[in-house]
Write a structure and sequence with these properties.
The protein is an alpha+beta fold. The chain contains 11 helices and 4 strands.
Length: about 260
Amino acid sequence: MGFAWFACGFDDYTYQRREEQPENVGAMLREAHAILDARHVNFAPLETEKIKAVAPRRSSPDAFISHVKTLKLGELCKQLHGFVTYTMPTDEALLKKIGDPDEVAVCAYLHYAFRSVFPKHLPPKTAYDKKEVRLAADLGDWTVVKKVNLEAAERKEVFSALCSMRSVAERKAMEFTPGFEEFNKTLHAALEPFPERKSFGKLGQTLQAAKNVATETPAFQEYAFSQAMARVGFPPYLTNDHVASLYPELKTPKPKGNFGKKKK
């Protein structure tokens, strides 16, 4: 019999849940995603509470789209620059590989604005006595083991691990949601006209395209918005691309599978 298991032992929040019944795995992964989504930003080299304080609160998807259309990347980077705590490396070879830390702050800003429209709530605490975060599964066609020791690992290593686990939890939670495969095909078709490259100016257009994909499932609408933003390089969460842009010395895990793509 297979299983899926997620556990975390943060100082102020502990949780663990293991499921062996396939019909319950989706719910567990949604809880894992909520936890990882809330926590991963905190390990970025940012003053996240200050970014959260300046991020706007919007009450609807339309209001969020309208706000995004008013944003200018240069102005936003300038506004958030003082909240970046990242220290540039002194090694010149490494320095050439570094991305723009201000753009990481921009995605954190988008994260908090996005969560005002699509809020997530942490599941009740459950006991877990290890200072680690762990995601494991063995369900035949899906096998994964990801973990990080919160006491032994460097902060940047925790940041990387949480970004990776967050991505997996979101992806698999969607796959375990009935109707997702058909919805994802429709979403992919709607977003296909937009090239997969970084373009802050295209955020409003891609969001509008995602909004036009009709769905009565809130999780699907949230996912459509997040994928639209990710497509043009400014997702409402932090990723291992952000980790690699700041810490090229880390070996960040590469995504596997063809999630979001047409099968060949």
